Amino acid sequence: MRLREDEAFLRRITQNLPKGVKNHLHIEDLRLKDAPIRLRIPLEEVSDTPINSADSAIEKIRKALTKQSEAGTMEAIVVPAALGNHIDHLTVREAAQPFIETFPTAYYEDLPYATTHPSAATDLEALRDASTERNDHLTPVTYQIESATELKRKLVLGYASQIDDETGSLIADFAQRYNGGERLWVNQSWLKGFGST
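Now predict its structure.
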């Protein structure tokens, strides 16, 4: 079900893109289970579980990224900021760490956690501090998207396996914070390669 949702999402977001761009976007299903199944933890603990360096998901994600990198098909990387400390989002960010230091990178604000989780603001500050320690200061960049609120709601409601109407509205309304845009936190390589608009 989740793969069908991902494929439908990709079709929706690429439908108005030029063919050349559209042909470079694809989904690679790594067949990873969500944390409650993969790590055998209760659903209510997904934001209270630390990263397990022995989690096989980390290596699986890294192998997939390495394959793309070595094939020369990866120009940039977009990863979760892990606001709200969702273990699956933290795991993806951890797995991508070796690539973050060499590729243009953007962090997205995890929804709905960015709007509801009490640690979201401090998580963002910790991410920014860590990037500064690596001497790669993160800059907020807002990309304007036409009819972002309605589009976001339509897109997220396509994930019926995990998003209900109330959560869909919460996520869609988040775009209003940025005048109908999407804010990413980008490293300096991203700014040099893709600019700020």
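The CA atoms of residues 30 and 60 lie 7 Å apart.
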